[in-house]
Amino acid sequence: MPRSQNKVASHRRRKKLLARAKGYWGARSKVLTIAKHHVEKAGTHAYRHRRTKKREMRGLWVARINAGARQHGVSYSRLISGLTKKKVELNRKVLADLAAHHPQAFAEVVKFATS
Fold this sequence. Notes:
Elements: H1 7-20, H2 32-71, H3 76-85, H4 92-101, H5 103-114
């Protein structure tokens, strides 16, 4: 009896892989073996950069808080130290948003932390 091949499943698998490679340049989006390699590599980069993004965002928040604090004559480290001593549990994401979009509220936070 001849060997049975599941053509439907293998076709769907290849089609799904080529769909993930859509938009890639040249053979990277057309040839299965090349597309497979580049889709895998893209997944590796995506995984790594999802973690890097978190570090970069924290750095951005710190820069925004520092810029806002220095407008009020306080350094970033003194502001964070003051907030910690007063047991204010505002995270850096919220503080950065206040500094960038709500300067009056941020001024109140700085005043409370340094008093």
